[in-house]
Amino acid sequence: MCGIIGAVSQRDIAKILLEGLRSLEYRGYDSSGLMVVNSTGQASRLRCVGKVNNLACAAEHATLSGETGIAHTRWATHGKPAESNAHPHISTNIAVVHNGIIENHELLRDQLQGRGYTFYSETDTEVVAHLVHWEQQRGGSLLSVVQRVIPDLRGTYGMVILDTDSPDRLIAARSGSPLVIGCGVGENFIVSDPMALLSVTRRFIYLEEGDVAQISCYGIKIIDRCNNIAQRCEVELDTHYDVVNKGVYSHYMQKEIYEQPSVLKNTLSGRHNNSFVELHELNEKAYSLLKKVEHIQIVACGTSYHSGMVARYWLESLAKMPCDTEIASEFRYRKSVVRENSLFVTLSQSGETADTLAALRLSKRLGYLGSLSICNVASSSLVRESDFSLMMKAGIEVGVASTKSFTAQLVILLILVAKISSLKDATSQVEREIVNALQILPSCIEKVLLQDQLIAQLAQDFSNKNHALFLGRGDQYPIAMEGALKLKEISYIHAEAYAAGELKHGPLALIDSDMPVIVVAPQNALLDKLKSNIEEIRARGGLLYIFTDAISSFVGSDNIYIVPLPHIPEVLAPIVYIVPLQLLSYYIALIRGTDLDKPRNLAKSVTVE
Ligand code: F6R
């Protein structure tokens, strides 16, 4: 994680760096810092614990000005959130900002201490500053010095190095963490995410793995991992950075939950014609590949993994397509067997999740038929490195807890299931049924949102609990998992999800009147089985919250709360039933007074493993 921005200009860039950091805050927000240097070599560094706003306030009272600078917003990996651990880290004239993890930092620290260097932080990054400083004594340009240091580093980095003695340039290096050069007129920039620079440029050059670049006001020089001068094409982004505001809502998360009907209309738009799927984004090559596919391997993390789990149920039951779904951090280190004609599918809101990207890169060496990513950020590394992509079109998601991106991901997956089903069997009605159902999805979610006040009321008693269980069966099991994830990440209540049939194999021992059990119970073939599980909880005095459209199947009482939901086509249930769980978590967290949009210890984009 961590966001990086750097600039070499002829104008004062302190404000540009601060504004850039605000857009990068989703990458980490436990501390931030910046360093600027003017043409006479006068440098100032400012670092603060907490959100970027703390740094911006401190900057108002400091005299910060300079034409060259680097800045960083941190998500702590090594060393607690503290001013001393905030970047930039310096070694005399050398300053460094870094995203990633230098895995051999302990060894390097020992060596550098042996050479007389004093460390002022607990971070892995500080070794880079001292190493560059040490190597600089051996001579050569800053670019060649950094190139000599790189072979000593193990791990991942996107880093930018500033030498206050030569403030006319910055050196950037990428290995495992994205970096993009922003091209200006008489000025150039470097950043982790181009969105943070859209106010100053739309022209970007994406660095590739192993690249080292020198950026000055008038020139950009890129050296590839084989030490050759690289020509990388400039890309003009036509994305508009919509400054997202909360409008009438109290939090971005609340807004993003409420936005779902319109977001899903957008995700669907142009992707069906009457009862048929139309995926214009996929070219002939993609279609002929899809026709060959005999197995799908889905890989993702967190919320995206949960949508991948739902997709597995859908692909096997509706499209008769064998599918496996795995957590990216497990997949990448496991010796897996690749099935014949298997398509590798990655799911990611950000497209920058380190483990998912690493899994994609690994898949290219393993003999998959090809790779497809489902993503929300068109310029992301995942999209650029996949053979084909389908965009979620969910708009920028600001809340750290994923909501609208989860439902948008599910919509794309369901469209894909429809397409695969018709490619496999032209006589199948599955495509028609799915497309017809999807057309009423936005209005189904609108109806669910009408339960807002009932859910807010239920949250009152729930908010003082310390633990919760979420139960579901079949394609609702991943929804129970996603509901539990939402609750723990924003309310800090410990929550676990179980496939309801597993209850009697252990978790039933936890049931008492203090343990809320949330059950997602749509009308389907498994409802009777689920009702038996609910009875087992009831018989042991458990406190039940049942979300269901099978109202007549349940009777509310003192310890059974029923949240009635609209009747919907069965295939839509996973998409619809997550929405009330998002609302429940939202209202519980609201009562508990947590930082809902930026929960503690988390970041929106997880760019370290
Ligand atoms: C939870 C959440 C995370 C992300 C996970 C993967 O609300 O947002 O679990 O889903 O970090 O992120 P992406 O989808 O960007 O790969």
UniProtKB/TrEMBL annotation:
<dbReference type="GO" id="GO:0006002">
    <property type="term" value="P:fructose 6-phosphate metabolic process"/>
</dbReference>
<dbReference type="InterPro" id="IPR035490">
    <property type="entry name" value="GlmS/FrlB_SIS"/>
</dbReference>
<feature type="active site" description="Nucleophile; for GATase activity">
    <location>
        <position position="2"/>
    </location>
</feature>
<keyword id="KW-0032">Aminotransferase</keyword>
<dbReference type="InterPro" id="IPR001347">
    <property type="entry name" value="SIS_dom"/>
</dbReference>
<dbReference type="InterPro" id="IPR017932">
    <property type="entry name" value="GATase_2_dom"/>
</dbReference>
<protein>
    <recommendedName>
        <fullName>Glutamine--fructose-6-phosphate aminotransferase [isomerizing]</fullName>
        <ecNumber>2.6.1.16</ecNumber>
    </recommendedName>
</protein>
<dbReference type="GO" id="GO:0006487">
    <property type="term" value="P:protein N-linked glycosylation"/>
</dbReference>
<dbReference type="InterPro" id="IPR035466">
    <property type="entry name" value="GlmS/AgaS_SIS"/>
</dbReference>
<dbReference type="InterPro" id="IPR046348">
    <property type="entry name" value="SIS_dom_sf"/>
</dbReference>
<feature type="domain" description="SIS">
    <location>
        <begin position="458"/>
        <end position="599"/>
    </location>
</feature>
<dbReference type="GO" id="GO:0005975">
    <property type="term" value="P:carbohydrate metabolic process"/>
</dbReference>
<dbReference type="GO" id="GO:0006047">
    <property type="term" value="P:UDP-N-acetylglucosamine metabolic process"/>
</dbReference>
<feature type="domain" description="Glutamine amidotransferase type-2">
    <location>
        <begin position="2"/>
        <end position="218"/>
    </location>
</feature>
<dbReference type="InterPro" id="IPR047084">
    <property type="entry name" value="GFAT_N"/>
</dbReference>
<dbReference type="GO" id="GO:0005829">
    <property type="term" value="C:cytosol"/>
</dbReference>
<dbReference type="GO" id="GO:0046349">
    <property type="term" value="P:amino sugar biosynthetic process"/>
</dbReference>
<dbReference type="InterPro" id="IPR005855">
    <property type="entry name" value="GFAT"/>
</dbReference>
<dbReference type="Pfam" id="PF01380">
    <property type="entry name" value="SIS"/>
</dbReference>
<feature type="domain" description="SIS">
    <location>
        <begin position="286"/>
        <end position="426"/>
    </location>
</feature>
<keyword id="KW-0677">Repeat</keyword>
<keyword id="KW-0808">Transferase</keyword>
<dbReference type="GO" id="GO:0004360">
    <property type="term" value="F:glutamine-fructose-6-phosphate transaminase (isomerizing) activity"/>
</dbReference>
<dbReference type="InterPro" id="IPR029055">
    <property type="entry name" value="Ntn_hydrolases_N"/>
</dbReference>
<feature type="active site" description="For Fru-6P isomerization activity">
    <location>
        <position position="604"/>
    </location>
</feature>
<dbReference type="GO" id="GO:0097367">
    <property type="term" value="F:carbohydrate derivative binding"/>
</dbReference>
<keyword id="KW-0963">Cytoplasm</keyword>
<comment type="subunit">
    <text>Homodimer.</text>
</comment>
<dbReference type="Pfam" id="PF13522">
    <property type="entry name" value="GATase_6"/>
</dbReference>
<comment type="function">
    <text>Catalyzes the first step in hexosamine metabolism, converting fructose-6P into glucosamine-6P using glutamine as a nitrogen source.</text>
</comment>
<keyword id="KW-0315">Glutamine amidotransferase</keyword>
